[in-house]
Amino acid sequence: MHLAPGAVGVLTTQASTKVYHRQGDRRAAQLLNAEVSEGAVLLVAPDPVTCFADADYEQRQVFDLDPGASLLVLDWFTAGRLAMGERWAFARYFSENIVRVNGNAVALDRLCLDQAITDFDEPYAVGRYNCFATVMLIGPAFEAANEILSVSIGEMPLLQRASLPMSYSRLAWGGVLRLAGLGAEPVRACLSEHMGFVESILDCGLWARKW
What we know:
By secondary structure, the chain is mainly beta. It has one domain (2-202). Helices cover 12% and strands 41% of the residues. It has three helices and 13 strands, in the order βββββββββββαββαα. It has a six-stranded mixed β-sheet with strand order 2-5-8-11-13-12. The chain has a five-stranded mixed β-sheet with strand order 1-4-7-9-10, with no helix packed on it. A two-stranded parallel ribbon has the order 3-6. Strand 9 and strand 10 form a beta hairpin. It is globular and about 45 Å long. It starts with a strand and ends in a 9-residue tail after the last helix. The mean pLDDT is 90.
């Protein structure tokens, strides 16, 4: 996809991305390549990925920004269909986000959860949490937001047994917010609270017109 100079684009989904169980050795995959021109703003804010039992999923997103372009990427996933007893029952989940500005890589975020190499029952794996989210904020449109988050969350201590642990890291071109929760809805509510700045770009909240 390509955003023209000065444009504002929003990429979202109707509901959670459901990944069904794999068939044979075939893997479900999703690839996004986006070019964002000078002065344009792209917001990628889908619902979380939910992998069914034995699902094998791979997602790669590459964003090429002109200097002066801005990008918000929300990348999040759940433990699976909890009501069906499928908590962390998928085979593999892989997600990669690459951000380049003027051809130079400024951010790379990669996560792989693989039942073949990861014991999800280990206390320092996923623990009691059922939803994880990462938000990347890159470019001048989010400079003020990054300044606020660096203080409000970046200086917040991580508490043991917190129901919504959060962390924030500053980057040369922006910042990264990470959080975990016991479910998708508490995480969504927390994201909405801390991303109110989106209203200055869309004239509404990130999910205000979803339903």
